[in-house]
Design goal:
This protein is of the alpha/beta class and about 220 residues long. It has a single domain, classed as 3-Layer(aba) Sandwich (Rossmann fold), CATH 3.40.50.300. About 30% of the residues lie in helices and about 20% in strands. The chain has five helices and seven strands; from the N terminus they run E-E-H-E-E-H-E-H-E-H-E-H. The chain has a seven-stranded mixed sheet, with helices on both faces. Strand 5, helix 3 and strand 6 form a beta-alpha-beta unit. The longest helix is centred in the middle third of the chain and has 17 residues. It is globular. The C terminus is likely disordered. The protein binds guanosine-5'-triphosphate. Guanosine-5'-triphosphate binds next to helix 1. Belongs to the TRAFAC class TrmE-Era-EngA-EngB-Septin-like GTPase superfamily. EngB GTPase family. Keywords: Cell cycle, Cell division, GTP-binding, Magnesium, Metal-binding, Nucleotide-binding, Septation. This is Probable GTP-binding protein EngB.
């Protein structure tokens, strides 16, 4: 899969400042530190396009990345970070809620969860919202390199059950550290975008079975 052009468009706090909604958007949601920025960098094959940090709560604005002049990947601020004031938490929640409920160009919301942990209450709420609003409910299990193969399989099943994912919804393990799994994410997103955009043919590939190389 080749990305011809991936541009960081900017960080925005207020709806009025967001780019004109003239292209489909795919939003990435998840709790702080789940690995959203790392995954975006891996997907776009860039080291530092999205800022990553071991300190949770780095992403406090909504970041837009324009891909191939055809759609936006949208990095939402991570929720569930305990060490910020209640006021700040509410303002993040408000920002995410406003974006998700009012953005006319939103086509899909992808939920990221850390594969090592059971989904939090907020993850479950987010997934419920995603389902209720008619999105496909692609779930990404991050940091797959941290678990053995058998433990990962077990955890994927647990996450699926706890989120109440329907049979047809996909859960995809990824490791940004090992650069594994992002092709499958692209495939899942391409399925959503194909009817709406002129995506390049390079995206049109059979989904390969991903073999994560773990210790
Ligand atoms: N082992 C491992 N660590 C990862 C992986 N992805 C991210 N990390 C680490 O997890 C931490 C958080 O990653 P980020 O990508 O900044 O997470 P984020 O979800 O954007 O965080 P916020 O800015 O808080 O929303 C960093 O220390 C990353 O290096 C992965 O696939 N494997």
């Amino acid at each position: 899969m080749i990305i011809k052009e991936a541009a960081f468009v900017g960080s925005f706090v207020k709806m009025e400042q967001y780019p004109v909604p003239d292209m489909p958007e795919i939003a990435m949601a998840g709790r702080s530190n789940v690995g959203k920025s790392s995954l975006i960098n891996t997907m776009l094959n860039r080291k530092k396009l999205a800022k990553t940090s071991s300190t949770p709560g780095k992403t406090r604005t909504i970041n837009f990345y324009k891909i191939n002049q055809t759609f936006y990947l949208v990095d939402l601020p991570g929720y569930g970070y305990a060490k910020v004031s209640k006021k700040e938490r509410e303002s993040w929640g408000g920002m995410i809620g406003t974006y998700l409920s009012r953005r006319s160009s939103l086509q899909e919301v992808v939920l990221l969860v850390d594969c090592r942990h059971d989904p939090s209450g907020e993850d479950k709420q987010m997934y419920e919202w995603i389902q209720q609003h008619g999105f496909g409910g692609v779930v990404i299990a991050t940091k797959a390199d941290k678990l053995s193969r058998s433990k990962l399989t077990q955890q994927l099943r647990r996450i699926r059950n706890q989120l109440g994912m329907p049979k047809e919804a996909v859960i995809l393990p990824v490791s940004s550290l090992k650069k594994e799994g992002s092709e499958a994410v692209w495939e899942a997103l391409a399925d959503k975008l194909k009817p709406l955009t002129d995506l390049p043919d390079e995206l049109d590939r059979d989904l390969e079975t991903i073999e994560l190389d773990r210790q």
